[in-house]
Amino acid sequence: MNPLLVETIKELPPLPQTVIELRNYVDSSGADLEVSKVAEILSKDPLIVGELLRLANSPFYGLSRQVSTIQQVVSLLGAGTIKNTVMANAIRSNFSINVSPYGLDNNAFLTNCSKEVDFISAWLREEDKALANELIPCAMLLRLGMILLSDMLIKSGKDKEFLEQNKANNFQDVHNLENQYCGVDSISFLGFLFNHWEFDERLIQSIAYIHNPHAATQEIKKNSYALAVTNCLFEPYHPLSQFNSKKSIALINEAIGQGVNFNMANFLAKLPEEAKENLIKDD
């Protein structure tokens, strides 16, 4: 890996102590895990509690009733989901956004990131709620690799050169350009980051196969296809375009052909309105 990326990983801000304690407890407890202990750890940080309650009562998790205590949240969502969500939220709040090396507008980029999380929740909540809950942390951080590669390019003075080359390529083959300048593409780098922060191995593997979900093990194939579809649909340069919408449908069909249980009718129904409109436009 590019030495600058190694430095980038070394310089990452540490997770809050409460988050580290929660991760270590959940990962080490196994069948001995106690909901009350998880709630006790979380209660040490009122900001985390407030954010978890907000998320739990948002459309993300589609809970059937309002929750008002952290113990209710842990009981309803499960300690693993809570751990991954708390970690993702803590990480996401630690970074300032400047994706100018990619030629992207920061506000539009952030809006697209939010839509990714909303979509994966809305799409999967009814047909596979457990999968939706598991993948929300991945969706929350799906573009983190781009954010950190941007920062590295700026610090190394390569940002303008990268942008000019990107423009010359008409913003195509961005992953190849990332590999050329950084030694890794943004999605593969995200896998390194998930490993660095010690997320669940299932999530690390799910991300590792976004580019080739057909090669994933059967155990995490649906995860990887769901992330691949979301990554394709909300591709930062042309989110929800006709091309990317058709490509995402092709990925669903490919997954179904491999025995992955996706409901195509549900997927089409949950597509954002902009994608539906683009699909019926003339080529």
TrEMBL record:
<feature type="domain" description="HDOD">
    <location>
        <begin position="12"/>
        <end position="213"/>
    </location>
</feature>
<dbReference type="Pfam" id="PF08668">
    <property type="entry name" value="HDOD"/>
</dbReference>
<dbReference type="InterPro" id="IPR052340">
    <property type="entry name" value="RNase_Y/CdgJ"/>
</dbReference>
<protein>
    <submittedName>
        <fullName>HDOD domain-containing protein</fullName>
    </submittedName>
</protein>
<dbReference type="InterPro" id="IPR013976">
    <property type="entry name" value="HDOD"/>
</dbReference>
